[in-house]
Request: fold
Amino acid sequence: MNRSALALLAALVLSPILQACEAEQQDRLVTLATWKQATPPAEPRVQTVALTHPVTFPPRSAAIPGAEKASLLEFLNRQSITSGTRVTVTPNAPDGTDAGLLADRMGEVRRVLAARGLVVNLAPPLQGGNPDQIAVVALKSQVAPINCPGYNAPIQLDHEGRPILNPGCAAAIDLGLMLENPNDLNQGRTLPPADAEGQSLSIQRYRTGQTYAPVTQSTTD
Reply:
């Protein structure tokens, strides 16, 4: 067998092996799209949720029982529904409902809510349902949950065998947990008036060399 035949035979034998190696190497290469596109950083978002609490009246009575009133106030406290929050009072009105009694019940619920500084809207009655029950619905802003791989969600791998991570995810979750008012994410609060006198005195002390010495404190004691 001459050299040409041996070379041809070797090429035929090694060709599938080389192709498999090349395909494996191609799978490990980072694609151009992956190289050019970075994962967008995670940011906390605000969403509005409707919180509902039912208030049940005794039959043919417009007075809120003490337990029902306490339950309503506990609901407002637990959900941090504070003064200025807009709430809606929605009654049920199946066929044969006493319109006068219904109005008295809605007024009673409205008085309890208004005493807490809430802005109360009276919605039209819903057809059907329990005629002795009125729903109190409050719209509240809260920080939407973020799926953070490795923090509160499992880590998955992409087609290149790399972990799919969300940069800044844990910091975004911590920021959402620290917010006193979630609406601050959409629009910041107006700064209070500055203390012009205090600022002027500090500048005057600096110019006259009468600045306060920094307070030193040892961390080894």
Notes: Helices lie at 3-28, 32-36, 66-78, 99-114, 169-178, 196-207. The chain has a mean pLDDT of 80. The beta strands are 46-56, 86-91, 119-122, 133-143.
